[in-house]
Inverse folding.
């Protein structure tokens, strides 16, 4: 008995291709959402770890340690643009009256956490309050203020850190318009300087297209809370009961 050969007509093949195309179109947004959601988790986790390391380094060394968080990419060198709005690096700084002078990068530290699907979209010292309604209202305000280079509250600006005559190519690579960048400075006692209220860091989905940043989905965000006095960093969920 001869085996039956299966043959597809051109119409049937086109139908299979059409169905496959529809399925791919339906699945792609879900896959992208899953991937970008993971990027938000990863970016937030990395930022939390960096803040913890900076705080720990300040206490252990009995020195002022700044976590540099560049947020303005407009005039940054090409090699630095991808680190703006999500990257960081630790540096020792020296207190000089009311200002802080750059001393040197922490030995072994490098720029980390390049933008790859998520960014630091907002830093604020505005309190969310203690009730569910005020926290939800606070979250909606934060979502409305998510925009590249948005920095609220009173974090120390990067321009407030004086190079003090030190010539450093990586610091200067941040660009001449670095006033929108910021540094969170931990004191030798573990808290942060120039703030007596908690700071809230919001991370959300974002794409870097090679020249600019595009917000993707501001409904997907995570928030870190930094206690200004103790330096403790925790996750903060404004929608938690």
């Amino acid at each position: 008995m001869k085996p039956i050969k299966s043959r597809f007509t051109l119409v049937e093949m086109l139908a299979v291709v059409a169905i496959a195309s529809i399925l791919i179109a339906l699945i792609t947004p879900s896959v992208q959402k899953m991937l970008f959601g993971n990027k938000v988790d990863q970016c937030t986790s990395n930022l939390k770890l960096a803040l913890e390391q900076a705080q720990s380094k300040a206490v252990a060394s009995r020195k002022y340690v700044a976590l540099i968080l560049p947020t303005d990419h407009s005039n940054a060198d090409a090699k630095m643009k991808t680190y703006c709005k999500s990257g960081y690096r630790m540096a020792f700084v020296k207190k000089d009256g009311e200002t802080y002078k750059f001393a040197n990068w922490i030995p072994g530290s490098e720029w980390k956490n390049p933008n790859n699907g998520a960014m630091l979209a907002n830093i604020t010292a505005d309190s969310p309050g203690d009730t569910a309604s005020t926290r939800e209202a606070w979250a909606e305000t934060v979502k409305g203020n998510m925009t590249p280079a948005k920095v609220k509250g009173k974090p120390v600006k990067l321009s407030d850190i004086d190079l003090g005559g030190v010539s450093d190519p990586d610091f200067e690579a941040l660009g001449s318009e670095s006033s929108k960048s910021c540094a969170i400075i931990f004191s030798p006692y573990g808290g942060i300087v120039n703030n007596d209220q908690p700071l809230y860091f919001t991370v959300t989905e974002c794409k870097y297209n090679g020249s600019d940043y595009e917000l993707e989905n501001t409904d997907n965000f995570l928030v870190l809370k930094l206690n200004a006095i103790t330096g403790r960093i925790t996750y903060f969920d404004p929608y938690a009961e």
